Amino acid sequence: MRRTLLLLLALGLLAAACGSDGGETASTGPTTPTGATAATGSDVGMVAVVASVDLYLGAPQRVAFGLVLPDGRLVSFGEIGVDFTYLGTAEAPAEAPGPSAAAAFIPTYGTPAGTGGARVTSPDEARGVYEASGVVFDEPGFYSATVTVDVEGLGPQVAQTTLEILEEPQLPAPGDQALPTQNLTMDSKGVAGSAIDSRFTTEGEIPDPELHGITIAEALQEGRPVMAVFATPVYCVSRFCGPVTDMIADVAATYGDSAEFVHVEIWEDFDTQTLNEAATDWLQLPSGDLTEPWLFLIGADGTIVDRWSSLWSQAEVEAALQALPA
């Protein structure tokens, strides 16, 4: 099986921003998602890219999109409208109306949220995704997503992309029992510091010790809720991993009494392309691809309460923690 990191956003979405920010490097996996198409409402050429992974039938889910222009600039802030159309399966093509939703912009952690409507930005000014919450798909198969947005200075823009909805999730999902993972911690012996947190390679020490003090298995055995972020801050393709890990460290400073907070590094050894076993246990798809970043909230009874992929807001994470039983 191939062991690669699946790029969630089109390379063009972030190419202009690639560089030394957070020490993150170029892609280690596929660089072009399927089904991204240019705008149909004008000649601007806006492209919509699905940033969500492992979408499945029947459950309310978050569906995220990135919007990119041909010159590498992004569409950011404000809200977009999304209309889904069911296209059937490869064996039985069809066409039927699907759900509709409004999607709000979620900036990377540390980026100002912005005011007003959607506008064109450089990747250095604003990076993020538009997230629609509570979307329910009634049929498995393929859906088209038509994205509409009124962009300041460009006017109304339309783009379409395609996504697949599975019968069942391929990764741990809400309602499943959490895997009792023996992830690496500050107490792990005989392992490189970079295998515990890739930032060791740039900082010379393991940052955020509060995220590296306990295994998921130990927390489950103690009957403690767990918030586990799976991310590689240094080698992240989308450049979301460093900011989301920083966010969870800041959330832990406020909600440390509510749950155990865990960071699981993706790479055991980036140079040899060896993945940490804890990461593959949770995130490796049947295809062999591994997606990240992910965040999982596990209840005290060991049941997964919620999960987030690609990017998430601090407000929704804190709300989920506050909703845990006392």
Overall description:
This protein folds into 2 domains: 33-165, Immunoglobulin-like (Sandwich); 193-322, 3-Layer(aba) Sandwich (Glutaredoxin). The chain is of the alpha+beta class. Helices cover 15% and strands 32% of the residues. The chain contains 7 helices and 17 strands. The model is unreliable at 1-36 (pLDDT under 50).
* Helix content percent band: 10-25%
**Radius of gyration, whole Å:** 19 Å
Q: In the CATH scheme, what's the topology name of the largest domain?
A: Immunoglobulin-like
Largest sheet: 7 strands, antiparallel
Order of helices and strands: EHEEEEEEEEEHHHEHEEEHEEEH
The top-level CATH class of the largest domain is Mainly Beta
Structural class: alpha+beta
Please identify the oligomeric state: single chain
Helices and strands in order:
Blueprint: E1 4-6, H1 11-14, E2 47-50, E3 61-68, E4 74-76, E5 79-88, E6 93-107, E7 119-121, E8 128-135, E9 141-151, E10 155-165, H2 193-196, H3 200-203, H4 216-221, E11 226-230, H5 241-255, E12 260-264, E13 267-269, E14 274-275, H6 277-283, E15 289-291, E16 294-298, E17 304-309, H7 314-322
Parallel strand pairs: 1-15, 11-12
Antiparallel strand pairs: 2-3, 3-8, 4-7, 5-6, 5-9, 6-8, 9-10, 11-16, 13-14, 16-17
Helix pairs in contact: 5-7
